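[job 4471] stage=fold_predict status=RUNNING
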Amino acid sequence: MFTGIVEEIGHIRQIKRSGHSCMLTISCRTVLEGTKLGDSIAVNGACLTVTRMDQDSFDADVTPETLRRTSFSICRPGSPVNLERALRLCDRLGGHIMLGHVDGQGKILSFRKLDNSIEVAITLDKALMRYIVEKGSVAIDGISLTVAERTDTGFTISLIPHTGEKTILMDKKPGDPVNIECDYIGKYIEQLMKDKPGEGLTLGMLQSLGHGGSYGL
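[job 4471] inference complete, writing structure tokens
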């Protein structure tokens, strides 16, 4: 699991492609501290396993499924990437709980300066928009951010200067893809409610369990 607080901007040193998969070599320093083979590092929000490492880089395999879901297919040697080591139980939870499982790609629509922030508008497939909640959390290229506004076709986030400096989001331009991980809680609830007819979780069941409102209903 991850928090969406980016620790370092690394750079792709090499991409070895093989059919519909590839292996990335990523130059970095900070995220290698305390890391060992087999550990997980989020690269632009995608949880990848360290298969080789030295003092200034690590290798990770990218499966066909990950390539299909993410923007790694357009990365090139030299491309910057957001990096974060997996969460430890003793760490502060500064962002929100993320699994490192990218749901799909959004596309940057526009940037707009507003006082001390930059509003970033992102379009997203309707199938994923149902998991985007106004004032809820969303991960964009591995960055934990808050949804400022949402529409039927996209949403807006407000980026403070610190986040802009410590991540790669401000290096993007309108039209560029970004990896999106929606809050996983909503997906679990949806699956429970769509289970076998009569056996899944329903509003009536929650109301009966809440005895008139203990669950906020």
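[job 4471] summary: The mean pLDDT is 91.
[job 4471] exit 0
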